[in-house]
Backbone:
């Protein structure tokens, strides 16, 4: 789904005369969050070959953390200025602590799943616009954690 179509669907979802789109909004929340996460992880930058994130046996190649940070900082101030829900935080730094490079994909699967469910519950309690604003505004927590696994 391209950005213009997603944007038009989101603007229509805010109108009460479109109940079908409102029902679709909760599914779009998780899909949007997942897509944003994947885009950040798999962004391909020319000349970035040989640079990778090593998460135990899993590798993500072609990622340049500096480019991710630059993209994030370009939107962070705008997103945080629009964040009216200051009492809720979706992603806490403690959630990503004590995740070892050797075990993050296997041994802590249940723990990671529980943490994700907590995150998702908080995300679903917000309206779509507030949730997307908050999720984008907290990407720095994820980027900081990812940098621990970055290798040239």
Residues:
């Amino acid at each position: 789904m391209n950005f213009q179509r997603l944007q038009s669907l989101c603007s229509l979802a805010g109108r009460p005369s479109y109940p079908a789109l409102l029902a679709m909004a909760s599914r779009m929340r998780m899909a949007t969050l997942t897509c944003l996460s994947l885009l950040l992880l798999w962004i391909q930058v020319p000349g970035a070959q040989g640079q990778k994130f090593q998460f135990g046996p899993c590798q993500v190649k072609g990622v340049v953390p500096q480019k991710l940070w630059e993209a994030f900082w370009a939107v962070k101030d705008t997103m945080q200025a629009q964040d009216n829900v200051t009492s809720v935080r979706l992603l806490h730094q403690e959630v990503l602590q004590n995740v070892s490079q050797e075990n993050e994909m296997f041994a802590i699967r249940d723990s990671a799943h529980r943490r994700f469910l907590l995150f998702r519950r908080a995300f679903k309690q917000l309206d779509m616009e507030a949730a997307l604003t908050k999720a984008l505004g907290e990407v720095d927590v994820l980027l900081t954690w990812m940098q621990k696994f970055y290798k040239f």
